[in-house]
Design goal:
Order of helices and strands: EHHEHHHHEHHHEEEHH
Number of helices: 11
Strand content: 15-25%
Helix content: 40-55%
CATH architecture of one domain: 2-Layer Sandwich
Distance between the termini: 24 Å
Shape: globular
Structural class: alpha+beta
CATH superfamily of one domain: Nucleoside diphosphate kinase-like domain
CATH class of one domain: Alpha Beta
Largest sheet: 4 strands, antiparallel
Strand order of the largest sheet: 2-3-1-4
Length: about 190
């Protein structure tokens, strides 16, 4: 089934000059770039882009707590709390600040099963758990431990809309695309 999905090359990847190589990964798989733009969003834009609902915040917080447990680290010592929602809020703030720190390149790709397959091309959210050949494995060596110690989000190169995630009763692609490409999807 022909679908569209949203990919955002994050500021740290733009600064490193990786945009062309990242786009090539999708084109090599036969996907078409239907829309592309470079811009720098302000903090408010990125605060609205990332969810504020407690389920999302709790999920982010729980993943962080799990990563800390696997590394034998203490989340309460690092974050001052063990509440996953509070940890999720902190990480959301780091994400918004990081995304507003420089230019991003937003891309709408389309093709067969684009939502699911694009996430496979990007690789696991944590670069240290991504498979060789994926964008996140090939272009990032960041780890949750380093990111948390520097009080910043993980530098995992790209954002990829999740076809399973809902935001305000809309698929994440529909919700996110209206924020990033209001001139097309409003």
């Amino acid at each position: 089934m022909i679908e569209q999905t949203l990919i955002i090359v994050k500021p740290h990847a733009v600064k490193r000059g990786l945009v062309g190589r990242i786009i090539a990964k999708f084109e090599e798989k036969g996907y078409t770039i239907s829309h592309i733009k470079t811009f720098q969003g302000n903090l408010d834009l990125w605060q609205s882009f990332y969810p504020s609902d407690e389920d999302w915040l709790k999920n982010v917080g729980m993943k962080t707590i799990q990563n800390y447990k696997e590394d034998g680290a203490d989340t309460k010592e690092k974050f001052g709390t063990e509440d996953p929602i509070e940890i999720g809020r902190l990480i959301k703030g780091w994400l918004a600040k990081d995304m507003s720190s420089g230019s991003v390149v937003a891309i709408i790709i389309e093709g067969n099963d684009a939502g699911k397959k694009s996430r496979l091309i990007c690789g696991a959210t944590l670069p240290n758990q991504a498979t060789p050949g994926t964008i996140r494995f090939d272009f990032s060596s960041d780890t949750p431990d380093l990111a948390n110690s520097q009080e910043r989000p993980l530098h995992n190169i790209v954002h990829c809309a999740d076809p399973q995630e809902m935001r305000n009763d809309k698929r994440s692609f529909d919700y996110e695309s209206r924020i990033i490409f209001p001139e097309i999807f409003s």
